[in-house]
Write a structure and sequence with these properties.
The complex is a heterodimer of chains A (111) and B (116).
Chain A: E1 4-7, E2 10-14, E3 19-25, E4 30-38, E5 44-51, E6 56-59, E7 62-67, E8 72-77, E9 86-94, E10 99-101, E11 105-110
Parallel strand pairs in A: 2-11
Antiparallel strand pairs in A: 1-3, 3-8, 4-5, 4-9, 6-7, 7-8, 9-10, 9-11
Chain B: E1 4-7, E2 10-13, E3 19-25, E4 31-37, E5 43-50, E6 53-57, E7 64-70, E8 73-78, E9 87-94, E10 96-97, E11 100-101, E12 106-107, E13 111-115
Parallel strand pairs in B: 2-13
Antiparallel strand pairs in B: 1-3, 3-8, 4-5, 4-9, 5-6, 7-8, 9-12, 9-13, 10-11
Classes of the chains: A mainly beta (111), B mainly beta (116).
Chain lengths: 111, 116
Amino acid sequence: KQEVTQIPAALSVPEGENLVLNCSFTDSAIYNLQWFRQDPGKGLTSLLLIQSSQREQTSGRLNASLDKSSGRSTLYIAASQPGDSATYLCAVYNQGGKLIFGQGTELSVKP
Amino acid sequence: DTAVSQTPKYLVTQMGNDKSIKCEQNLGHDTMYWYKQDSKKFLKIMFSYNNKELIINETVPNRFSPKSPDKAHLNLHINSLELGDSAVYFCASSSHGLAGPTDTQYFGPGTRLTVL
């Protein structure tokens, strides 16, 4: 059974810091891995999608990596800003046709 | 605007009542989903429909009945509501190829259900 774990559960950093969010999964038979952002009281917004054959994806200040063999992904946020404050969710799309989510990392960027 | 929309945004009701949540997507996707996010913010899939056909039913009580009248709509009807049904329910949609998903899932804004 696929399980997705995110560490840390919460993170508070001063503005301008670079930071890394971690995600691990137990079953490497995945189609892709996705990182989402959820703002309080809102839906999820897709940030990056990494196909199983890829190693990383970049979008602006965000870089996500995927190491399928070790069951790990990281989301790197450069030069963090208060507007980056949100919950970040990692999810893997497994070959059973389901998107399995981690419990998220709640990020707070202080001005 | 192209998006996944849900109605209502908030739903407060008494135990034992029957309620429905509606979802529509105008992204041209062929697959739609319902997710439940509990009080600990854990998001878990409930159902998935592809071209109006149920493909995932994730051990959800049969008080929950999804209905897909067409590819662009997936509604969720809940009978005999219980306190434990209180949660945020998210609808999502995506495209699928023969070898699996070809795109990310796009989520609606959520429906916060409170059962009193």
